[in-house]
Amino acid sequence: MARRCFVAHPRVSCVTLATLPTPLEAGGKLQSGANLWVKRDDLTGLGVGGNKARKLEFLCAEAIDNDATCLVTVGAAQSNHCRMTAAAGARLNLPTHLVLSGEKPKNLEGNQMLSAMFGAHLHHTGLAASDWSNLELARAELTEKLIRDGQRPHSIPIGGSTAVGAIGYAVAFDEIISQCSLQNFVADAIVFTTSSGGTHAGLVAGLVRARANDPQKVLPKIIGIGVAKGVALNTNRVVELANETLTLLGERANATIADVIIDASYMGADYAIPTQAAADATTWAAHRGAWVLDPVYSAKGFSGLLGLDANGDFGVDSNIIFIHTGGLPSLFVMH
Ligand SMILES: Cc1ncc(COP(=O)(O)O)c(C=O)c1O
């Protein structure tokens, strides 16, 4: 099922899970006079869509190359990454185990309801949503148990943020740049929500690769809006992951700390704790373009874009791309 993906690198395997390219929509003017563009990665298709489809195309190819008999991954109770891994497992006929925070709810809602619908096994740990290190330990324990039971699990860390997963966003960077030239503009910045750092690292790897190929080309700033303390609000980690990704892509050029911008000032108290700015950004986006943002990820990311614009960070007539990374199912969770 895995095939070689020559878009990334001749040695990199990829399975088709996402509907690509996703649209790049014109979003009109921001308050400052900058032009807004929305990259619709909420429309990647797989299991109702989102950014993780791009990572899973490479992570699942790795699983198939390794002859895995099942997938294992981990996340918060309403993890989009877990739901999309469950969808990938269904598409590829690989039983999928999800290690989740929280207790088993009486009724499954949102992402958990969909994960169960895709046939995944849900392992509720009772851990807090932001207890990332113990959630990762629980994933390691489950992986070992599956090995003892004779399985060959492909075990994917939180958010799918390995160098292999990040290749998906190095490829997305190229996709965005070619859509910009088709639509006759040059992007000044790409803004998106960052949490486990794989989306960010992949975009930075794409940027560094493009710069190495054409040092004269004007390339956008990559701006991640952080939404979770203690995961990857760590610039050094994103640089490291981007450089591991570049190595997999056979690229000699390196990312540096100057390539990685993480703005954590729109997170509020911590992961999944609502902010007024995110609620306002949700209304703004819904009224402007019928873009549906979620309170945990995309609304905080978009509130960052609007906040940077209000602070005067973007020039008049500059072109600012927001990557809508998805998150729709958590809108339908009642508590
Ligand atoms: C909707 C949504 N947006 C953004 C992100 C952040 O992506 P990353 O974990 O690659 O930083 C996630 C991660 O789970 C997500 O579900």
From TrEMBL:
Cofactor(s) for this UniProt protein: pyridoxal 5'-phosphate
Keywords for this protein: Pyridoxal phosphate
Chain ranges of the Tryptophan synthase beta chain-like PALP domain: 16-326
Coiled coil: none
Pfam hit, one: PALP
Molecular function per GO: D-cysteine desulfhydrase activity
SUPFAM superfamilies in the cross-refs: Tryptophan synthase beta subunit-like PLP-dependent enzymes (SSF53686)
InterPro entries assigned: ACCD_DCysDesulf, TrpB-like_PALP, TrpB-like_PALP_sf
Family, as annotated: Belongs to the ACC deaminase/D-cysteine desulfhydrase family.
PANTHER family attached to this UniProt entry: 1-AMINOCYCLOPROPANE-1-CARBOXYLATE DEAMINASE-RELATED
Protein name: Unannotated protein
